[in-house]
From TrEMBL:
It comes from the Bacteria. Keywords: Viral release from host cell. Transmembrane segments: none annotated. This is Phage terminase large subunit-like protein. InterPro entries: P-loop_NTPase, Terminase_6C. Residues 260-408 form the Terminase large subunit gp17-like C-terminal domain. It comes from Litorimonas taeanensis.
Length: 422
């Protein structure tokens, strides 16, 4: 820093400092600045809280200075508004106030002072991107889009205005085919960022909690480090199977609902999780489907605490049965549950095979399309992807509880059961 620049800095007022702090060129990391080489698609793969939203918003803000029509696409319209526009790092809250756009909610449109226009779209409705044309686009959380291939295809066909229409994509990665294919294109530039890279703007308590919870796990590598994790050798579940089981419609009326419980051997902060899965069944026999409704697994609590959690879920979901594995603890599990509420119908099951062997027929049900996830269950899905492989860390308690639930629901009244009751 030269003398003139140092003197300039020393004479800045507090308002001047605030203005400089808000000026992206002074504060952005290298991975948050557009590539200097020629590109049509710039992808920022990042962990949670790494600054992806701010990166996308700042790029759009700069593009709005020179282009006329901009597309903003999120997993749904609520995310588009709450994150891309109104979030702390959204377009309505960054940059100099006089340059910020105003939002016309009735038209889902942004209007910049210079006349540039931005339009909000939901990836749940790919056909809404047919027809409109744009100079630039920002695609946020692409890997959470319901129909990534169709929405991306329509978006790219609409990027046809100006000399160089460009797309910036900000997302926590998943190895979905649409992302892999886009990353391999010659005109695509890929940057990566970790949650820790943005530590100056994140709560130390949040960073500590994330590291304690996900550090060293595959889910942590994906959600915190922004890595794309490919299928494991000899895994029963693949990413394609997990993506295919995501259910995007209203849950139908279910014939039966169970709460499946895989208790830990010990209690305390460092104990295994108590796997608690809520699942239901629609239909009978070989056409029946299992719906995985909730993963309520907890760690580091007493037997009374996880028993109460399971009982509360039983009542909230109006379940028919509470299914409990009793390899460890035997009748103690039933005793704990019975002491809290003796009216809860408990069915105990005992494992006679390894976890992977018990999971094999359940993985087959997934391949047949007979199991669907009613929500994105990331921690559970991460365990399924590594169950029985060299990448498995710790006991797969969530996955084990799911295996009991699905086996119980889909082998009654049709196929012979694979579990033995005590």
């Amino acid at each position: 820093m030269g003398p003139a620049w140092a003197n300039f800095i020393q004479n800045l007022s507090s308002n001047d400092y605030a203005a400089i702090g808000d000026y992206w060129d002074f504060t952005a990391r290298p991975d948050q600045k557009p590539p200097s080489i020629d590109w049509l698609v710039w992808i920022l793969l990042g962990g949670r809280g790494c600054g992806k939203t701010r990166t996308g918003a700042e790029w759009i803000s700069r593009r709005a200075e020179t282009v006329g029509r901009i597309a903003l696409i999120a997993p749904n319209l609520n995310d588009a508004r709450e994150v891309m526009l109104e979030g702390e790092s959204g377009l309505l809250n960054i940059g100099f106030p006089r340059k910020r756009p105003r939002y016309i909610a009735s038209r889902r449109r942004l209007e910049w002072p210079n006349g540039a226009l931005g339009y909000l779209f939901s990836a749940e409705d790919p056909d809404s991107l047919r027809g409109p044309q744009f100079n630039a686009a920002w695609a946020d959380e692409f890997c959470a889009w319901a129909y990534p291939e169709a929405a991306l295809a329509n978006l790219r066909l609409g990027l046809r205005l100006g000399d160089k229409p460009q797309l910036v994509m900000t997302t926590t990665p998943r190895p979905i085919p649409a992302l892999i294919k886009l990353m391999q294109a010659k005109s695509t530039i890929v940057y990566r960022a970790k949650t820790q890279d943005n530590y100056t703007n994140l709560s130390p308590a949040f960073l500590s909690m994330m590291e304690d919870t996900y550090g060293g796990t595959r889910l942590g590598r994906q959600e915190l480090s922004g890595e794309i994790l490919l299928d494991q050798a000899h895994a029963l579940w693949s990413y394609a199977m997990i993506e295919a089981c995501q259910y995007r419609e209203d849950i139908p009326a279910l014939d039966r609902i169970v709460i499946s419980l895989d208790p830990p051997v010990t209690s305390g902060e460092k104990s295994d999780h108590c796997g608690i899965i809520v699942a239901g069944r629609q239909g009978q026999g070989r056409t029946a489907k299992a719906f995985v409704l909730q993963d309520a697994s907890i760690q580091g609590v007493s037997p009374e605490r996880w028993a109460r959690t399971a009982i509360d879920l039983f009542k909230a979901w109006e379940a028919d049965e509470l299914l409990v594995e009793v390899n460890q603890g035997g009748d103690l599990v039933k005793t704990v549950i019975g002491s809290i509420d003796p009216n809860i119908p408990v069915k105990t099951v005992f494992a006679t095979k390894s976890k992977k062997a018990r999971a094999e027929p359940v993985a087959a049900f997934y391949e047949q399309g007979r199991v669907v996830h009613a929500a994105r269950l990331e921690a559970l899905e991460s365990e399924l992807l590594t169950l029985g492989t060299s990448a498995q860390k710790g006991s797969p308690d969530r996955a084990d509880a799911l295996v009991w639930a699905v086996t119980h629901l889909l082998t009654q009244g049709g196929l012979p059961p694979k579990i033995r009751s005590i």
